[in-house]
Amino acid sequence: MIDDKDEGARSGPGAAANDAGETASAELPDEGMPLAEGDRLATVEAELAETKDRLLRALAETENVRRRLQRERDDASKYAVSNFAKDLLSAVDNLRRALDAMPESEVKDSRTQGLRDGVAATERELLGAFERHGLQRIDPKGERFDHNFHQAIFEAERPDVPAGTVVEVLQPGYVLHDRLLRPAMVGVAKGGAKADSDAAA
Questions:
Q1: Which end of the chain is more exposed for a tag (fewer CB within 10 A), N or C?
Q2: pTM for the model
């Protein structure tokens, strides 16, 4: 049996107020309400563009690192023999000095000739090995002085030679591929006729 008081309590003024409160709360906007479809799309596109930019930057940086490492590896392979070659230059210099000390015209007997031929063959073999590994001799006698490859030791008065011409090579230089290993020690003409390039100017 239902109590009239309970029924009245449920259907009385309190119940009406409760229903009104529920209706009002249902009409209030939710603070955690999702963005409109257009705003959400714009946000996603902005995040995608930022991610794409970061990816492109990372790829570019990776490519730069790869190229730098490749260049360093090529250089290491190309110039790996430089220290070894430097140590051999004095041996080649001494072979040349030995040959200059006994000119062909002064060789009188077969034993001396055989010795000279052996020294000359050794020099040729060594220079050939140098060339096979990219090491080239600089012997610039008669050429225009070039401070990139030559080192002037003295100047000489040569009126019949254009100024700035190499007139004597005291010690040949060497380049390994495109890198100077040792400059040529030279004597340079001082005074004399002007060089062709100066005359043309």
A1: N
A2: 0.60
Same domain, 126 and 155: no
Q: What is the CATH number of the domain that holds 143?
A: 2.30.22.10
Helical spans, DSSP H, in the chain: 4-11, 13-27, 37-78, 82-101, 110-132, 196-200
**Which has more confidence, 91 or 24?**
91
Q: Which residue has the tokens 């970061």?
A: 54
Instruction: Tally Cβ neighbours within 10 Å of residue 70.
Output: 10
Please tell me what DSSP assigns to residue 144.
B
Residue among 105, 184, 86 nearest 139 (CA): 184
Range of the domain at 183: 137-194
Q: What span, in angstroms and rounded, lies between the C-alpha atoms of 64 and 56?
A: 12
What's residue 126's pLDDT? 93
